[in-house]
C-alpha cells in the first residue's frame, strides 16, 4: 500500500515537482460505508487514550450525528439563529476543539476560553460555510487552527483571496453530500492507519514537526476529496465571471 | 489565472500551512500562491479535512455553564469581527493577490521600494517571526540577486518572469529552493519581474549600501 520507510525518513528531500498525483493514486482503499455505520456507533469517544474526559457524555445523541446532519445544523443557525442546533454542535465540537488546543500546548483555562470563542465564531460566520468544500469538522478545525495561531503564537494568518459564493454558486445537493461522505471516510481511514503513521500526522498538526520534516505521503484517501473541492472551486470561479 | 501555473508548492508546505505551523512569512507566500492556483488550494483544503478528521478523535470536557457563557458572548456580539458582506470581493483592477495587498496596505502602486543598486529594488514586508518576506523588482534581463542561500527560500512570481536551471517561472509560479539548490535566475527580457521572496535564513540585504554591494560583486 505504502512504504513505512518513506514515513520514517524525515529528512527526505523536498520534491520540487508539482504535487499532483492523479485522483485516487496512492490512497488506501475506502472502508465501505463505515460512515453510515458510524451513525449508530457508540464507541467513538475515547478513540485516543489521551482524551481528558468524555465531553459529550451529557449529550449522547450529539456524538452520533453524521456529517450531512451537521451541515443542517449550521444551516439552521445561518437561517434561523437556532440555539437548539447550536447546543448540539457545541456539545460535539467544543470538547474536541478544547482537546486540540490542549494538545497544541494551551493550558486548560486558555483552551476552554478559546474553544468558546471558536464556537461563537462558528455562529457568526455560519453564512460563510461552504458544504461543497468542507465538512463541519473541517471548517471548525480551520477556525480552531486560526484561533490557535492568534492566541498561542501571536502571529497573523494570511489567508487566500476569498471566493465569495452567492445564489448562482449554490452547491448541488448531491455534490455536497458526496463531499460530506468523503470526509467521514477520511476520518475512518485515519482511525484505521497504523499507529506509527497516524502519530506522524498528529505530530505535523500539533506543531511538533517543521515543514521540512513532514512526510508527503499520508496514506489517506485524499484524491477524491481534492477533486471534489477542485470542482466546487471551478463552479465558484465560473459564477464569479 | 491568466497564465498556466507550472511550478507549485510542495505537499509538505501545503500540509504545514493547513496545520498552521509555518512562520508568518511562509503563510503569506502560500496564501498568495493559493489565491492564484486552485490546484494547490484544493490540495490545501484537503489537508484541512485531515485536520478536521484528526480533531474528531479526542475530547476534553468543557466546564459547567460553558454553553450558556458562549451563547451570552454571541448575544453580546463578542469573539469574531462582523463580516461585511462583499468586502471579500477583490477589486477587478487589483494587480497583487489580496494577502500581499493586506501587508502593503494597498496595491503595487503603493509599494515603497528601496533601491539596492543595479536597478534592483526591494520592499521588506512587516511579518513577525523567524522568516522574512520581501518584494523584489528586477529589471528585465537582469540577474536576481542573492541566490546562494541558506535555509529555505520560496520565490513567487507576481509579474514578468525569470528563468534558471529549473526552467521558466511566470506569474503564479513558485520556486522552492533549499540550501542544496544552486541557481542563478535571470529576469526575462521585455518586462520587469516582480516577485515575493521569503526565507527562513537571516536576510543578508538588511539595508546599508556598503553591505549591499558585496553580494553583487560576487555575481
Ligand atoms: Zn499551485
Automatic annotation (TrEMBL), chain B:
InterPro entries: Anti-sigma_ChrR, Anti_sigma_zinc_sf, ChrR-like_cupin_dom, RmlC-like_jellyroll, RmlC_Cupin_sf. It comes from the Bacteria. It holds the Pfam family Cupin_7. Gene3D superfamilies: Anti-sigma factor, zinc-finger domain, Jelly Rolls. Residues 107-198 form the ChrR-like cupin domain. NCBIfam families: anti_sig_ChrR. This is Transcriptional regulator.
Amino acid at each position: 500500500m505504502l512504504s513505512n520507510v518513506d514515513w520514517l525518513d524525515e529528512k527526505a528531500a523536498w520534491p520540487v515537482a508539482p504535487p499532483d498525483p492523479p485522483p485516487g493514486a496512492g490512497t488506501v482503499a475506502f472502508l465501505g460505508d463505515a460512515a453510515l455505520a458510524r451513525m449508530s456507533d457508540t464507541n467513538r469517544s475515547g478513540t485516543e487514550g489521551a482524551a481528558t474526559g468524555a465531553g459529550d457524555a451529557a449529550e449522547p445523541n450529539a456524538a452520533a450525528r453524521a456529517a450531512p446532519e451537521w451541515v443542517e445544523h449550521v444551516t439552521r443557525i445561518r437561517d434561523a439563529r437556532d440555539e437548539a442546533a447550536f447546543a448540539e454542535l457545541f456539545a460535539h465540537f467544543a470538547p474536541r476543539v478544547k482537546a486540540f488546543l490542549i494538545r497544541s500546548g494551551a493550558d486548560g483555562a486558555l483552551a476552554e476560553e478559546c474553544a468558546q470563542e471558536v464556537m461563537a465564531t462558528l455562529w457568526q460566520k455560519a453564512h460563510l460555510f461552504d458544504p461543497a468544500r468542507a465538512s463541519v469538522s473541517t471548517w471548525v478545525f480551520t477556525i480552531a487552527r486560526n484561533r490557535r495561531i492568534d492566541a498561542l503564537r501571536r502571529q497573523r494568518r494570511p489567508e487566500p483571496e476569498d471566493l465569495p459564493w452567492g445564489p448562482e454558486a449554490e452547491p448541488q445537493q448531491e455534490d455536497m453530500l458526496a463531499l460530506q461522505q468523503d470526509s467521514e471516510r477520511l476520518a475512518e481511514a485515519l482511525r484505521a492507519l497504523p499507529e506509527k503513521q497516524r502519530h506522524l500526522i498528529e505530530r505535523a498538526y500539533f506543531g511538533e514537526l517543521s515543514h521540512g520534516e513532514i512526510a508527503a505521503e499520508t496514506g489517506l484517501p485524499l484524491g477524491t476529496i481534492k477533486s471534489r473541492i477542485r470542482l466546487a472551486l471551478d463552479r465558484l470561479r465560473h459564477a464569479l465571471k | 489565472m491568466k497564465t498556466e501555473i507550472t511550478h507549485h508548492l510542495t505537499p509538505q508546505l501545503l500540509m504545514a500551512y493547513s496545520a498552521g505551523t509555518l512562520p508568518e512569512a511562509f503563510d503569506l507566500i502560500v496564501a498568495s500562491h493559493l489565491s492564484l492556483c486552485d490546484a494547490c488550494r484544493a490540495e490545501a483544503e484537503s489537508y484541512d479535512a485531515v485536520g478536521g478528521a484528526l480533531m474528531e478523535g479526542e475530547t476534553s470536557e468543557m466546564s459547567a455553564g460553558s454553553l450558556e457563557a458562549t451563547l451570552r458572548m454571541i448575544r453580546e456580539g463578542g469573539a469574531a469581527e462582523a463580516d461585511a458582506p462583499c468586502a471579500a470581493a477583490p477589486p477587478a483592477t487589483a494587480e497583487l493577490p489580496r494577502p500581499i495587498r493586506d501587508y502593503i496596505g494597498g496595491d503595487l502602486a503603493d509599494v515603497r521600494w528601496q533601491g539596492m543598486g543595479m536597478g534592483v529594488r526591494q520592499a521588506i514586508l512587516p511579518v513577525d517571526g523567524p522568516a522574512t518576506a520581501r518584494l523584489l523588482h528586477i529589471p528585465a534581463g537582469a540577474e536576481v540577486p542573492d541566490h546562494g542561500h541558506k535555509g529555505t527560500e520560496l520565490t513567487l512570481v507576481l509579474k514578468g518572469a525569470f528563468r534558471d536551471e529549473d526552467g521558466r517561472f511566470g506569474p503564479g509560479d513558485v520556486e522552492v529552493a533549499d540550501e542544496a539548490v544552486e541557481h542563478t535566475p535571470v529576469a526575462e527580457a521585455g518586462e520587469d519581474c516582480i516577485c515575493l521572496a521569503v526565507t527562513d535564513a537571516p536576510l543578508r540585504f538588511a539595508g546599508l549600501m556598503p553591505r549591499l554591494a558585496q553580494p553583487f560583486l560576487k555575481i
